[in-house]
Amino acid sequence: MPQTPGIVQGGIFCYTSANPALRNAAVSVNDSLQKAADLLRRARYAVALTGAGISTPSGIPDFRTPRSGLWETVDSMEIASLAGFRRRPEAFFAWVRPLTRQILEAQPNPAHLALARMEELGFIKALITQNIDILHSRAGSKVIYEVHGHLREATCVECFQTYPTDVFLLHFIQTGELPRCPDCGGLLKPNVILFGEALPVKILHAAQRAARTCDLMLVAGSSLEVAPASELPRIALAYGAQVIVINFERTYVDDQAAVVIRDDVATVLPHLVGLLESGPR
Ligand SMILES: [Zn+2]
């Protein structure tokens, strides 16, 4: 874990933010972190919900928002749709090639590692993510619901056989040749959810069940703008859970959340783990 910026007040290490707007609010951010740690200690079943913001410190652009630069071509929404994939797979693969290279070269950042450590210590029981980049599993998280699919596997569009993507994707990035099924020669479609494609029902149901069952939901690095994952904190609140939000931007649940920290997840989450490790279990 990298050193967290901080100050010592009354012999207690206090968090100070890298965000200039929050730097003068060190004590209140520190109070928020203490409260978040207390809630996690007391929780019976806490789950985390993450979005693109957890992976931007790893250099991965936000896959589904117009700000990412991925949507500059006029018909990128069409290219990244299931219908577009079927109609013009070469356009889809040409479009997705730079993103795939970025994802394969990315490493889990301190926020991913902190969430994996929280699970290892027993403070969170499951992690729901909108990300397809598999950085949570590479960081060591075990119980993960990837509601938008993932790049770990690809499925043949002809015979529906599933393959691990690593070899296929490396070959595709190096050569630009479309990945094909070794059995039947059909195209291999990465198991990520495209526009116009249904979310994986079992995974989504498991995530919704976790939202109903949990007594604490930690939202980290998601602005909660992409449904249906964005609905999960609303479900958790409706079933009586408390919510912690750690995100740069405001979210729709901030007003109902027990703790809100508008700062960098890659700084805040390791600090939270530090508090959990140093306090009572
Ligand atoms: Zn096949």
Account of the 3D structure:
There is one protein chain. The chain is of the alpha/beta class. The protein has a domain at 61-105 and 150-192: SIR2/SIRT2 'Small Domain' (2-Layer Sandwich), CATH 3.30.1600. It has 11 helices and 11 strands. It has helices at 20-23, 26-42, 76-79, 82-87, 89-105, 110-120, 135-139, 166-175, 201-213, 232-238, 265-278; strands at 6-9, 12-15, 46-50, 126-129, 144-146, 149-156, 162-164, 188-192, 216-220, 242-246, 259-261. It has a 6-stranded parallel sheet, sandwiched between helices. It has a 3-stranded antiparallel sheet with strand order 7-6-8, with helices on one face. Strands 1-2 form a two-stranded antiparallel ribbon. Helix 2 packs across helix 11, helix 5 packs across helix 8 and helix 6 packs parallel to helix 11. The longest helix is centred in the N-terminal third of the chain and has 17 residues, at 26-42. The chain starts with 5 loop residues before the first strand and ends with a helix. Bound molecules: zinc ion. Zinc ion binds at residues 156, 158-159, 161, 181, 183-184, 186.
What does this entry show, briefly?
This protein is α/β, with parallel strands linked by helices and 281 residues long. It has 11 helices and 11 strands. The chain has helices at residues 20-23, 26-42, 76-79, 82-87, 89-105, 110-120, 135-139, 166-175, 201-213, 232-238, 265-278, and strands at 6-9, 12-15, 46-50, 126-129, 144-146, 149-156, 162-164, 188-192, 216-220, 242-246, 259-261.
